[in-house]
Structure formats: structure tokens, C-alpha cells
Amino acid sequence: MKKGVIRPLAICLFKKGESILAAEGYDSVKKDYYYRPIGGGIEYGEKSLDALKREVHEEISAEIKNMNYLGTIENIFTFNGELGHEIVVVFEAEFVDEAFYDLETFTGKEDDGSVFSLKWIPVSEFGSGKLRLVPDGLLDLIS
After folding, report:
1. Quick check: 18 pLDDT over 70?
2. Distance from C-alpha of 53 to C-alpha of 38, rounded to nearest angstrom
3. What are residue 133's phi and psi, to 5 degrees?
4. CA distances from 120 to 3, 59, 113 (A)
5. Which of 25, 55, 81, 95 shows its CA 20 to 30 Å from the CA of 65?
């Protein structure tokens, strides 16, 4: 995160039955786990849909189809003690390769080479408060 900069993002919601695909993250200051759909930054001159396709390909080497815009969320938050501000464009999509739906968990890779874990999580686990879905407001958007 860059201080004082609003970051535009595109994230993608993938559904399998009553579950969604989410990456697990950890805030070391709050000592708290959170879950977020995959996606990433929209580059200057790039449309959000193109950013989404690029980010999914970069992170998990997957092609997507049937993209559908769900909404936009303004997200102001703290992560590891730092204030962040994002404008998050949310899409839902499907994998071209249906083998992704057969995996319970798998890994993705960030631009910096760090690896993250992805898994299919029942939406009810977020609704019950057992797990935290980010950005705030995403659960309301998809419910």
C-alpha cells in the first residue's frame, strides 16, 4: 500500500454451489485472519475487466469467462497498522478450465513472488461471523 493514494482494484467472485473462492490473508498487527476474492490493481489506462482477466491469469494461471459486473465498493481500512483506501470493482466469473472447481485448496502467486492459499468457503461461514470477508460490504453485495 502506498500512503495517501487511493488504489483502484478489480476482484473476482467465483462460485461453486454455496461456496466462494477466497484467498486467506493475515493482519499481523490485529492478529486477525481475513478472506478476499482474488484480483488486484487496475493499471493506468487499463479497463477494470481487462485488469481482472490479467490478475487472475497472473495469480493462478487461469482463463475466465462469463464475467458479470456486481458493483463497486469504496473500502477504507487498516492493514498491519497502516490506513488504506481502495475503490474495488467487483465481478463474478467462471473458470474456463473446470478442473479448478474440483480442487479444495490451491495456491496463487503475487507479483512479488509471495504465495497465498485459496480455498472454497461456504458463504454461510462469513454470514455467521465465523470468518471475515473483505472488503467490508462485499458480503452484502453478494447476498
Report:
1. yes
2. 11
3. -100, 130
4. 32, 16, 23
5. 25
Which structural domains are found in the chain, ordered by start? 7-138 (3.90.79.10)
Detail the DSSP E strand segments found in 42-143: 64-79, 82-95, 105-109, 115-122
pLDDT value at 1 more than 70: no
Q: Give me the phi and psi of 56, to 5 degrees please.
A: -65, -40
What cell does 47 get? 479497463
Query: Residue 38: which H helix or E strand, with range?
Result: strand 38-41
pLDDT in tens, 106-135: 999 998 889 999 999 999 999 888 999 999
Rounded CA gap, 33 and 112, in Å? 21
